[in-house]
């Protein structure tokens, strides 16, 4: 699996393994160390280093990081770094905040060493849990598509491997993994899914549930990629910029298929500095297209306001600017307004 992942990535000559000390990432490090000792993958030279990220979220985390780094050095990985991070509150929950801090540290380490890939130890079980969480939250196609095998520098070569198999690799290599207590902490939704939900599904529906969920993610990744490509090209063809504001013509938006229309609206919000809107917020913004006259604002995450400007108001703005309000502007007010996306500046007290 790792060999195929590195081949697909173009055989990067320097690779970093992200290792927490848990069974999944430790097994991945052991497999990567095999290629490090050989010095090549399919005849292409490779050097393998590792990064241990200490999130400082648990007592004794520095000791765990130090022991893990020692194990990685014994495996023959070089260089091995420990990166200590501060996990700041982002409003998206502790798991997301820790992930953001970890990825920032990993990417910084990769830049400094010149690594062309960062290996992550996510397994098929992690993918199944991700899809299940997406279903429970009512997420869209992109979320249900789960984690990608490759995204930028990040490679996940173990997405086809079960968690039990990584434990077997550790036993075969005589490695003693660290068991993160948060993995069984019911305070976290992912932990509840892992410990309580997935075993019940396997019991009631029969074996193979995890594989089916992971297969669903693989299928939806293809759909999500296609829709993303169409939405991106459509957005680029429609977007208009006026200073810090972004606008989309109402007529063209209305003619789009809903699957693309919602994605284009989300891209416009992101384009001015906002965050990914929920489905409910997208519905509210999209409903402005059916209003008569100017309407709004609809507030989207990240401090973005969306307004509908009617044809009459657009013409008035043109007249105020000394332009011919009727020139080149269609007269069908129901189809010729536009949605304006504006990032609100925080007030200064």
Give me the secondary-structure topology.
Blueprint: H1 2-8, E1 14-18, H2 23-38, E2 40-41, E3 44-45, E4 47-54, H3 61-75, E5 80-84, H4 94-113, E6 117-119, H5 124-137, H6 141-144, E7 150-151, E8 154-155, H7 163-172, H8 189-205, H9 209-238, E9 240-242, E10 245-249, H10 250-255, H11 258-271, H12 279-287, E11 295-300, E12 304-309, H13 311-320, E13 338-343
Parallel strand pairs: 1-4, 1-6, 4-5, 6-8
Antiparallel strand pairs: 2-3, 7-8, 9-10, 10-13, 11-12, 12-13
Helix pairs in contact: 2-7, 5-8, 5-9, 9-11, 11-12
What does this protein structure show overall?
This protein is of the alpha/beta class. 49% of the residues lie in helices and 16% in strands. The protein has 13 helices and 13 strands. It has helices at residues 2-8, 23-38, 61-75, 94-113, 124-137, 141-144, 163-172, 189-205, 209-238, 250-255, 258-271, 279-287, 311-320; strands at 14-18, 40-41, 44-45, 47-54, 80-84, 117-119, 150-151, 154-155, 240-242, 245-249, 295-300, 304-309, 338-343. A six-stranded mixed sheet has the order 5-4-1-6-8-7, sandwiched between helices. Strands 9-10-13-12-11 form a five-stranded antiparallel sheet. Strands 2-3 form a two-stranded antiparallel ribbon. β2 (40-41) and β3 form a beta hairpin. It is elongated, with a radius of gyration of 25 Å.
């Amino acid at each position: 699996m790792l060999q195929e992942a590195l081949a697909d990535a173009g055989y990067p000559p320097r690779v970093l393994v992200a290792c927490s000390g848990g069974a999944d990432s430790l097994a991945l490090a052991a497999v990567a160390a095999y290629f490090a000792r050989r010095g090549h993958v399919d005849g292409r030279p490779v050097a393998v280093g590792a990064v241990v990220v200490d999130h400082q979220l648990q007592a004794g985390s520095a000791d765990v990081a130090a022991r893990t780094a020692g194990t990685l050095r014994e495996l023959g990985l070089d260089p091995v770094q420990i990166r200590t991070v501060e996990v700041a509150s982002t409003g998206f929950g502790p798991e997301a905040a820790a992930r953001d801090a970890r990825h920032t540290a990993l990417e910084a380490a990769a830049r400094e060493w010149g690594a062309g890939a960062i290996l992550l130890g996510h397994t098929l079980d992690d993918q199944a849990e991700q899809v299940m969480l997406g279903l429970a939250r009512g997420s869209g196609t992109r979320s249900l598509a789960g984690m990608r095998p490759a995204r930028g520098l990040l490679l996940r070569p173990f997405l086809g491997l079960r968690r039990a198999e990584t434990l077997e690799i550790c036993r075969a290599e005589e490695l003693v993994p660290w068991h993160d207590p948060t993995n069984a902490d019911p305070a976290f939704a992912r932990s509840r899914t892992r410990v309580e939900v997935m075993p019940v599904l396997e019991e009631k529906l029969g074996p193979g549930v995890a594989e089916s969920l992971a297969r669903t993610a693989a299928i939806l990744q293809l759909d999500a990629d296609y829709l993303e490509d169409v939405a991106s090209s459509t957005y680029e063809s429609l977007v208009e910029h006026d200073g810090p504001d972004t606008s989309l013509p109402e007529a063209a938006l209305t003619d789009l298929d809903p699957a693309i229309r919602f994605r284009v609206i989300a891209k416009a919000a992101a384009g001015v500095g906002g965050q990914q809107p929920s489905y409910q917020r997208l519905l509210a913004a999209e409903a402005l297209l059916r209003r008569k006259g100017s309407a709004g604002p609809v507030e989207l995450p990240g401090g973005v306001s969306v307004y509908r400007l009617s044809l009459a108001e657009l013409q008035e703005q043109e007249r105020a600017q000394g332009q011919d309000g009727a020139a080149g502007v269609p007269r069908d007010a129901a189809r010729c307004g536009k949605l304006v996306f504006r990032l609100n500046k925080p007030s200064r007290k």
